[in-house]
Amino acid sequence: MVFQLLVAGQEPVTNMISMAVLTLLQHPEQLRRLQEGDVGLDTAVEELLRYDGSFELTTWRFFREPTEVHGVTIPAGDSVIVALAAADRDPARFPDPETLDLTRSPNPHLAFGRGIHVCPGAGLGRAEVQIAVGTLFRRRPQLRLAAAPDELPWVQGVLTRGVERLPVTWTTEAPALSPSPFPPCPFPSSQNHRTDV
Questions:
Q1: CA geometry: angle at 91 spanning 85 and 92, to 5°?
Q2: What phi and psi values does residue 137 have, to the nearest 5 degrees?
Q3: What CA–CA distance (Å, rounded) separates 25 from 142?
Q4: Is the Cα dihedral 126, 131, 134, 140 positive or negative?
């Protein structure tokens, strides 16, 4: 249990931060709404978790006895796995599920599970993503992708989803935005930069 908590508290959050940044950079109009304060960071992160979370699947559940699930009998010893990515894009649960809407509310996504299987570190994970995304876009408001999305190297995993590297670029010129909910960050003279997130 301790091992699982340590692993679950590191890699998935790292992946979620990079996925949130990638999603926002691919949706500049939504990012601008966040930067201009039209939507709160807490609400935005909930939508980012739903839209493209770091867990595509749950862990397997094995049956001790034959069980019927939605009209299908599953033999004892067989397993099922829930596709969280599909559940969080279910049109019966989410209006216009393929659209990123940072103002979406309510947002009953399954990124951290539900009920007795909810992640015990959900509060910490949310806080980490909010702090990382808020700090990054406060300090680098002109952040842009430095590679085409289809060229990004993806983590090779069964359950998790994320990019191995997220090349970005930015300039240090003051952005032409209306007052932001993020505190201003003083920059030196205009320069171009490139790095991986």
A1: 110
A2: -80, -15
A3: 10
A4: negative
* Residues 60/80, Cβ–Cβ less than 8 Å: yes
* Strand (E) or helix (H) holding 23: helix 11-26
Q: What is the pLDDT of residues 72-81, one digit of tens each?
A: 999 999 998 8
Q: Which amino acid is at 122?
A: A
Terminal CA-to-CA distance of the chain, rounded, Å?
Answer: 30
Residue given tokens 């969280």 in the structure block: 84
Task: Enter the pTM of the model.
Answer: 0.81
Q: How far apart are CA 155 and CA 158, in angstroms?
A: 9
Looking only at the bridges linking them, the beta strands covering 67-69 and 72-74 are: antiparallel
Q: Report yes or no: 191 and 172 within 8 Å, Cβ to Cβ.
A: yes
Return d(Cα 22, Cα 25) in angstroms, integer.
5
Angle at 96 between CA 18 and CA 11, to 5 degrees: 20
Please report, for residues 65, 101, 113, 146, the alpha-carbon distance to residue 96 in angstroms, rounded to integers and kept in the order given: 38, 9, 22, 29
pLDDT over threshold 90, residue 178: no
| Residue where the block lists tokens 């700090």 | 135
Rounded distance between C-alpha atoms, residue 130 and residue 13, angstroms: 11
The answer for residues whose C-beta is within 8 angstroms of residue 162's C-beta and 6 or more apart is 11, 14, 15, 16, 18, 19, 54, 154, 155
